[in-house]
Amino acid sequence: MVSYTRILLVDDSKLARMAMRAVVNDIMVDAEMLEAADAETALDMLEHDRFDVVFMDYNMPGVDGLSAATIIRERHPGASIALVTAMAQDSIVEEAGRLSISFITKPVRRQDVASFLTGA
Question: What's the pTM?
Fold first, then answer.
């Protein structure tokens, strides 16, 4: 059983957040999930609350997901963070890896999310 209980889904696409929520619910029924439609809102939420896992889209208006994930990593070093994006550029993947931020490609597959959540 996966021990994460609080998950933050960050994506400017409501449809993408709904899809991720469905995948995570399929894996972990008891997880509490909150959503943010942009990185600025997510960073504000993380100022006042703690999350075990953050799924962060890369390509959003305003602050991009990698920049936000970098800030989250600095403030919450124990959080599990996954950059979720179709932008599989080597430089993005390398920077995410350097910061111990996982990378999940879109379209999101259940197997990739399950592997991330279980550390497999």
Answer: 0.92
